Amino acid sequence: MKKKEPLSLKDLKINGNDLKKLGYKEGREIGLTLEKLFNLIIEDKTKNDYNFLMNVAKTMKKSEEE
């Protein structure tokens, strides 16, 4: 069975609530991060995995704080 192609941010395996748990601020910061993650999975559908995306989001957050 073929995996469904991600069509929108709603198809991401993580959402804004997950990002809030990592310390992201509600609003623009979460929106921009979700867009970056979505662009990542558009390039490689196999990366649409909860644990993978959470790790990428953690890394992005840490690099912003430095």
UniProtKB/TrEMBL annotation:
One of its GO terms (molecular function) is RNA binding. One of its GO terms (biological process) is tRNA processing. It comes from the Bacteria. Keywords: Magnesium, Metal-binding, Nucleotidyltransferase, RNA-binding, Transferase, tRNA processing. Pfam families: tRNA_NucTran2_2. InterPro entries: CCA-adding_enz_C. Residues 8-56 form the CCA-adding enzyme C-terminal domain. This is CCA-adding enzyme C-terminal domain-containing protein. The lineage of its organism: Bacteria, Bacillati, Bacillota, Tissierellia, Tissierellales.
